[in-house]
Predict the structure.
Amino acid sequence: MIHRRDLLVGGIVLVATLGARAAVDEAKIIGPSVYDWTKIPARKTEVGEVRSFFRGPTKTLEELEVHVTTLDPGKASHPPHKHPNEEMIVLREGTVETLVDGEWKRVGPGSVIFNASNVLHGLRNVGDTPATYHVINWKSDRTPKE
């Protein structure tokens, strides 16, 4: 037989569990932050190096990810591809070609590239020096599922 006291204890445990779960979920959300370039380790890749700053949900996005890639001269980050998330690339230094609407376009430092959802895109270093660019990826509730 279930007593009123058992229901009360069960209710308290349930509320405490849900509250703890909400606190854990809230802790995972990226809030106001500063990421010092000198403290983000560079990881060598086959085509240069990458610095991964962060990746996770924010209050308005399902996922926000930022990394910085340095491509060696004559290298491509990867073959042209597409994905559901959108991304913005800000070229810090170097000269690259980027695939936009089926056409390769050459851009230099300070240029901004926007890769729309599920549109074929690519990037390659066409200069004589390394090309470094910041990549900002995001997913929202309107991002198509893969």
Q: What stands out?
A: The longest strand covers residues 48-56. The chain has one helix and nine strands. The two ends are 49 Å apart (CA to CA).
